Amino acid sequence: MKSSNSGYTLKCINCDTINDEKETNTYCTNCGGVLTVNYKEVRKEIQYPLESILPDPLKTGYSSLKHFERLSEKYEADIYAKLELENPTGCFKDRGSYIEVLKAIELGAEAICLASTGNMAASVAAYACYFKIPCYVFVPEKTPDVKLAQSTIYDAIIIRIKGDFRACELLCREFAKSGNYYLAGDYVFRQEGQKSFSYELLEQGPIDYDYIFVPIGAGTNFAAIYKGLLEMKAAGLIDKIPSFVAVQPEQSSPVVEGIFKKEKIVKDQVNTMADAVAVGDPFDFYKVLEGIEKTNGLAYTATENELLESLKEMTVEEGVFTEPACAIPLACFKNNLDTFKGKKCLFVLTGTGLKAAHIVAKYSLSSPVLSPKLERVQQYIESGFPDLQKQSWGQSRDLFTGNVSVSEDHEKLYNEYVDGINKKGKTLKEEEINALKSLVYSSDADLEFPVEVVDYKITMRKQGLVAAAVKLKINGGEEVTSLDQGVGPMDAVLTAIKAETDSFIALEVKNHQVEILSPDTDSLVIVTLTLEKEGHTFTAKAASPDTLEALIQAFVNGLAIANKALVVK
Hints:
alpha/beta; Rossmann fold
């Protein structure tokens, strides 16, 4: 694809004001509206708002256009997918980031900055790194390091801010104005880069789709694909623009709601596994609304369980592992088969599933740790557990059924758990029984415990710290009492235990998760600890109606797991 530029203006879609790109590349200086690039001439070549451009140095070719043969046959439609997950950093954002970084350099910016915790941060950081321009990424204070790893490897400067994402976004805008910094994001020049999707699609075959499904967050990618097709139609490259289908997760769907109300809806961000499209304030809503209205398009949402089911189905049937946002097209397609049966449909698959490994881990039934004995491996294979792993995907909780046979050691461990829980006056519900059995079966039943916690006591201090006294039995010997304090009961108890156990197994607690299985006050609690020693990471779990006791047992289990692993090593 050759690039040309006939000259252009930055026009506000609300008030038609012509803006100066040296003053703004985000919002209209007159009314605060969204901008669009209007070229002075219609050309068959793609036009970018740059003085000059070379081929993207990070891309190795077009993203694949794949025919989903099995799903097409299954649902009696002609389904294609454009695999944007094949872009350099694993998502569609690279098309826009390339143009934004080049524009920043053309405008003489000293650095580029943005607020993002995911795909955009990694993408902008990659191109900024390649072109040797500093990149500042603003993120909320609690953003996990794993979400920033890709940006960090590209030498982005991570700025952690107290508060939520909105606070980061506002501060980043202020930072951009404080110096000669280019503010990157879902703005007008990014759209110009991402419209290359449409030109690339034409070079891969005729654009004769009945529907194009696009996952929606801010709406910029939808607007970019639609703009590319508009330019191509004006140049005589295509005769018709397919109908667009805007799709969002049900738990975060301001654009779909706004399409039906024909007005922009702004909502607080909510939790959805499709976090790549969890945008409360959709920047390019009115461009999406125009695309839907002008193409006689549609808008749908899908539930979290429908996303999980479609994510797995697309992976298993077509061998394409995507981030959860990419499962929304298939989920919405299946929910409306009467509309799409017999039609030619294109799914825009925006990002790789490798960025969503935590989702797979959360909704997959973990494999148990087996003792290094052939008979144990054979027992596991014949137990029915591997089949259960396949069947349990997409459930909100690990499942366990009576069809799975367990070893005597695991049955003993399960009974010990139940006895202890019953002594606390707790009666397990069916879902709690399933969760407990799953936890037990995934545990190593052949462990030797170097420590037993006999008793503990918590005391609140006036200065805000919590004191813990923990009575321990070390290697079955005499009892010792360890005293320490922490910022809360969990921290205090762990610190007290570690004060004794660090002398022989120094484990660092890297992360902890507490899962409460029901809203009841006596709900079963499952605590998961991620522990580390000498570069080795261990995961330990335990369950109890009491959160502290589940935490204590999880740490004790971690000590046994680490001790066994290090001895074997």
